[in-house]
Amino acid sequence: MKILGIETSCDETAVCIVKAQGAKEHPSFNVLGNALYSQIKIHAEHGGVFPMLAKREHAKNLVPLLTKVLKDADMYHSGDQKMDLDKIKLILNREEGLFEQIIELLKNIKKPDIDLITVTSGPGLEPALWVGISFAQALSEAWDIPVIAANHMEGHIISPLISPSTSETSGLPPLNLRGGSEGEIFPALALLISGGHTELVLVEDWGKYNVIGKTRDDAVGEAFDKVARILDLPYPGGPRISRLAAEARAENSESEFTLPRPMIHSKDFDFSFSGIKTAVLYMVKKFEGVGLSESQKKSIALEFEDAVTEVLISKTRKAFEDCEIKTLIIGGGVIANTYIRESFTKLVQEFPGVQLLIPDIDMATDNAIMIAAAGYINFLGGKTASKNIIAEGNLAL
Ligand code: KG4
Ligand code: ZN
């Protein structure tokens, strides 16, 4: 079946069309069109994501992105389109300017060969989520195609199964396949490390999730972003810190600073990252007036990356020891970090029965393909379409 995926939960506007096939045990996804507009530059001026600005940018970019993916998927053909304009207008009543843009596109093209629309309904920034949901529902109304809601975090769990670089995948992980094979993914442990979440989740099957631990304060990506801000590095901080730390590693330098590893010895699977950030803040305060040199910034980045990685590895190792698992799945923007990827690759080598599934770097951060994939898995699991999807900022797994 062909699925239109829409993602607007934070600061990436993303639309894709994928051809999904196969059973739940080994789905395959063929990417027919994929487009993403990152608002990073716009938010960087403010040092973080502003929900109302994100909403406005999504509304501006969804139609151009949809047009592009329809063309890429060879679904952009001229023709007539009968629509109930009043209904569509009502659906889009809170999304400024989107109605005019959608109608302009729809009146010129035939209904595309799409079977299902999937849209992120949460977790995320509610004003941003609403734009994607209204957009999906307006298209559903115009084209008479069902819509189902997808959980953004489930998208991150599924992301390692998809490799858009080859555009055709077998549902089997394209990378890092160690032991295990088709249908032998579960039970799995998913470590979700993004800008809004840090969670350890036992995955018995698609749709069967048990969150065994999570952060009590900041998410790991949030800690990267906040530490970057303290070091005067632009938003988003993850890639910046990671680059500085990599430079320090390449120079073989040892950090001249020491940061705490919060909760590393706690008996549960919870995390806490705000203490590391506060420690960096106090450290930097000592240099007030003189300022930090480039090499001191590198040194802090190195120690911060080490501290965060050690905590993540230690909690994951504990989960390996306590729970019977076949696969470690890691999802979320922070797994774009090279050092963290390498550290987890080494960790699983200690556990020969466990395979590691991590996404390609461009699938680690937010995208629409993981949302289409989550929609497909949900569809196979019997989830029904809805005309009344609502944005849920704190939606749990
Ligand atoms: O999953 P994602 O794209 O969005 C959310 O769902 O939150 O994750 C974004 C987060 C940001 O905090 C960003 O700084 C972090 O992922 N990130 C990284 C790297 N690339 C992105 N953190 C560490 N190292 C990176 N290379
Ligand atoms: Zn995300």
Please give a structural write-up.
- The protein has helices at 40-44, 51-72, 85-91, 98-106, 126-143, 152-158, 220-230, 237-250, 274-285, 294-322, 338-349, 361-364, 369-380; strands at 2-7, 12-21, 28-38, 116-122, 147-151, 188-193, 198-205, 208-214, 327-331, 355-357.
- The protein is built from 13 helices and ten strands.
- A five-stranded mixed β-sheet has the order 3-2-1-4-5, with helices on both faces.
- The chain has 397 residues and is α/β, with parallel strands linked by helices.
- Strand 2 (12-21) and strand 3 (28-38) form a beta hairpin.
- Residues 165-170 and 172-181 have low confidence and may be disordered.
- The chain starts with a strand and ends in a 17-residue tail after the last helix.
- Helix 2 runs parallel beside helix 4, helix 7 (220-230) packs across helix 8 (237-250) and helix 8 crosses helix 10.
Strand segment tally: 10
Helices and strands, in order, run as EEEHHHHEHEHEEEHHHHEHEHH
Helical content (DSSP H or I, runs of 4+): 40-55%
Question: What is the tally of helical segments?
Answer: 13
Broad shape: globular
Biggest sheet descriptor: 5 strands, mixed
By secondary-structure content and strand pairing, the structural class works out as alpha/beta
Strand content: 15-25%
Strand order, main sheet: write it out.
3-2-1-4-5
Q: Any idea what the radius of gyration is? A: 22 Å
